[in-house]
Design brief:
Strand order of the largest sheet of chain B: 7-6-5-8-9
Oligomer: heterodimer
Radius of gyration of chain A: 22 Å
Number of strands of chain A: 0
Strand content of chain A: under 5%
Strand content of chain B: 5-15%
Helix content of chain B: 40-55%
Distance between the termini of chain A: 52 Å
Radius of gyration of chain B: 40 Å
Largest sheet of chain A: none
Number of strands of chain B: 9
Distance between the termini of chain B: 124 Å
Shape of chain B: rod-shaped
Number of helices of chain A: 15
Structural class of chain B: alpha+beta
Shape of chain A: globular
Largest interface: A-B, 53 and 34 residues
């Protein structure tokens, strides 16, 4: 009974804090593993099973969606894990009869996969280099974000869900890209020029302030040195082709 | 849709999609910078729906309660239930709600509108408003001594009509007692039927009418003015021996409606000569008629209007009401009847 109380308070703490949720998940990993194994009717291989990561994300969802009115936490999480795994299995059914690039090749211990052995134009050296470059950019971006006191998880939490809000934020990004003075000032002061952006882009100031963290990430991407990421966001930056 | 892996944690990864959204997904051994196409995205908690539904239900319940409460209020206070048409010469209509409060005052004719010009209804009380309007009419010179005030009450129920009628009559009589000598007439609007007409010469009488006086006898509207005298006159001729029975009839003709007290009554006895009959109205007392009329079985009931005719046909009530409206007619026919017998 007492344990249950502790768990519930932990769950409630983890609702807002992804790091706390991550810690909760590591401590409940055995539970998640056992639920997954029960579902798959075989032992789980930690490095290789997609199902385990899906079970973990399902546990995350359970933490977020749990309220005291929904009964004990663990049965609730177990139910959510099983239904998410069912979803996954159904979705994967269309790939039946196809080989996986992550399929182990050669001896078990070598750790080679089919994807590593195959060489195509995409999958060659070039791709490897571009991935490295992207990773370097992302790490740099993460550092810069940290100087603003923001992490990628925060950005993801703060990301607009509504289409209209997303468009508003994209409009802001579009404008900021063409105004180098504004970006310089932004980097120097480390403050989001909300008033100016709201005036220039005809977006409510309130909207900008609500999505401050997200906009910080977007504006940073607009500054020099994030070619790969900007390339990824091409369709947005081209002028809102998706609109 | 392609996603770049931005951040990896033990249990989840942060992805950036092509539209610039940062999303959380299951970390399937991803590496930072990797591009993936089919991540298992984390679903946002479906809690919102339930909360929303509950909120909507709460609002709906509140709205329903409000509606229920308001409907009762609306029916009692906002819907026209009765109306009083006050006619002096200016004619004004007061609309009353179920609680008897005045909702609106409107002028029916030109003078009525003139009377209401600049009038601000200070109270919702029907009597107060009526008094105020009559006061205004006096100020504006519409109402002078000897004129008539007609209150045409349109009420859904008899009881309501009675209540309003009694209240207005007593209230107005008191109000006008020491200012003007006027006649107050209260009518029930239904089918245009006249329910009461009690002209009041109140200063002479000195007595304000008690509610009982207004108590109304409903007279059915079977007025057959041209036909009625005929059966009445033929009756005595055909049935000569039934003198006693025809006598009450003549008497009833002579008898004036109660309100015409100035006219007095004639004695209805057949034996009484015409001259006596003619002189009777001045001195006329009810008792004369009574004494000559022992035979009437229903006499005690006071429903002696044309009782004699009761034996012949049933149309005598109509006749009775006929006399109400025309007081002179009774006298004339009385003479006729007498001359016939002679």
């Amino acid at each position: 009974m007492n344990e249950e109380h502790v768990l519930v308070s932990q769950v409630y703490a983890a609702k807002e804090d992804m790091a706390a949720a991550d810690r909760l998940i590591s401590s409940y990993l055995p539970f998640i593993k056992s639920e997954t194994a029960k579902y798959l009717k075989r032992p789980v291989i930690e490095e290789n099973d997609d199902e385990l990561s899906i079970a973990m994300i399902a546990f995350h969802e359970a933490v977020r969606g749990y309220t005291k009115g929904r009964g004990a936490f663990l049965p609730f999480a177990s139910m959510l894990i099983r239904s998410r795994l069912t979803d996954h299995v159904r979705r994967e059914r269309r790939h039946r009869g196809h080989l996986s690039l992550d399929m182990p090749m050669g001896e078990e211990s070598s750790g080679d996969t089919l994807g590593m052995r195959l060489t195509t134009e995409e999958n060659g050296q070039e791709a490897y280099i571009s991935r490295d470059a992207t990773r370097a950019e992302i790490e740099e971006l993460a550092r810069q974000l940290e100087s603003f006191g923001v992490s990628f998880t925060d950005v993801a939490e703060n990301c607009p869900r509504q289409k209209r809000t997303l468009h508003a934020c994209q409009k802001v990004m579009e404008y900021a890209k063409g105004d180098s003075g504004l970006l310089e000032e932004f980097l120097r002061t480390k403050r989001l020029p909300a008033v100016r952006l709201s005036r220039e882009c005809h977006v409510e100031k309130k909207t900008l302030e609500r999505h401050r963290k997200y906009l910080v990430a977007l504006l940073l991407i607009c500054t020099n040195g994030y070619e790969m990421i900007r390339g990824h966001l091409k369709c947005v930056l081209k002028g809102g082709a998706d609109r | 849709m392609k996603y770049i892996i931005m951040e990896c944690h033990a249990s989840y990864a942060v992805l950036l999609d092509e539209k610039g959204r940062f999303l959380k997904a299951a970390n399937r051994q991803y590496q930072i910078g990797q591009t993936v196409e089919d991540p298992v995205l984390m679903k946002e908690a479906g809690l919102g729906k339930r909360v929303k539904l509950r909120a909507v239900m709460g609002i709906a319940a509140a709205a329903a309660c409000f509606l229920l409460a308001f409907t009762g209020y609306y029916r009692d206070y906002m819907v026209r239930d009765a109306s009083i048409c006050l006619t002096i010469n200016p004619s004004v209509r007061l609309e009353l709600n179920r609680k008897g409060q005045v909702m609106r005052v409107s002028g029916v004719n030109e003078d009525g509108r003139k009377l209401l010009e600049g009038y601000r209804q200070g109270s919702r009380d029907r009597l107060t408003v009526t008094k105020e309007l009559i006061g205004r009419a006096m100020e504006m010179g519409y109402l002078s001594a000897g004129s008539r005030i007609v209150l045409d009450i349109d009420a859904p129920e008899e009881a309501v009509f009675q209540k309003y009628g009694v209240e207005l009559r007593t209230g107005l009589s008191e109000y006008l007692e020491d200012t003007l000598e006027v006649e107050i007439e209260i009518i029930r609007h239904e089918n245009g039927a006249e329910e009461t007409s009690e002209p009041l010469q109140k200063p002479e009488e000195g007595q304000t009418p008690s509610p009982v006086e207004i108590e109304i006898e409903r007279k059915e509207l079977q007025e057959l003015p041209p036909e009625e005298p005929d059966p009445a006159e033929t009756a005595p001729e055909t049935a000569e021996p039934k003198q006693e029975e025809t006598a009450p009839e003549t008497k009833s003709r002579c008898e004036q409606p109660r309100q015409d007290t100035t006219q007095g009554e004639t004695s209805g006895h057949k034996d009484i000569p015409a001259e006596e009959n003619a002189s009777a109205p001045e001195s006329g007392s009810d008792h004369d008629g009574d004494s000559g009329y022992e035979a009437g079985p229903d006499y005690e009931n006071g429903s002696n209007y044309g009782e004699g005719l009761d034996y012949e046909n049933g149309s005598n009530y109509g006749e009775g009401s006929d006399y109400d409206s025309g007081s002179h007619y009774g006298e004339d026919s009385n003479h006729d009847g007498d001359s016939d017998y002679e």
